[in-house]
Amino acid sequence: GDSVTQMEGPVTLSEEACLTINCTYTATGYPSLFWYVQYPGEGLQLLLKATKADDKGSNKGFEATYRKETTSFHLEKGSVQVSDSAVYFCALSDQAGSYQLTFGKGTKLSVIP
Amino acid sequence: DAGVIQSPRHEVTEMGQEVTLRCKPISGHDYLFWYRQTMMRGLELLIYFNNNVPIDDSGMPEDRFSAKMPNASFSTLKIQPSEPRDSAVYFCASSLSNTEAFFGQGTRLTVV
Hints:
The complex is a heterodimer of chains A (about 110) and B (about 110). Chain A has about 110 residues and is mostly beta strands. Chain A is about 0% helix and about 50% strand.
């Protein structure tokens, strides 16, 4: 079945540091890939997505590129802020028709001033 | 639109009691998902509906769990009887066909 593996953290960075959260996936078809963010006490919000190989999703300074050859979708940001502190989830959606999301375990990011 | 609305936000109940969680999806969305989030297992899909019809309930842990969607604007997840291991945050999400899912704020369930 489909699965997503991401670094579990927690990750603690100083403000303005570079961020990379690794994500790799296993899927039988050609999935869409997502990064969701969960702020404390909130539900999940879509951060960015990519629907086919070599697509780059980007939002709020975050980027991730769909790499089919390495089955990866790593999340990157060049300069993190305290407000980026949250839990980040990598996910995939099987485009074969079910549209359900399979999530990684989540990576907690804490950014300190 | 107010987004996906879940109620209650917090629920504390005693073991053996019936618990009902409620969800109002975004108007016009044709998919509705119920997820459970725990520290040990992360986010797990329990069941999802398409046009009010349950499509895949293979994630429902056992017969104590049931979900219904009587119309396009309302769904319930029921646990009867509840057990301490059911303690988790339960999320409802909705989407329009093959687009991103929008999540509610979740219901934190504590079974004592």
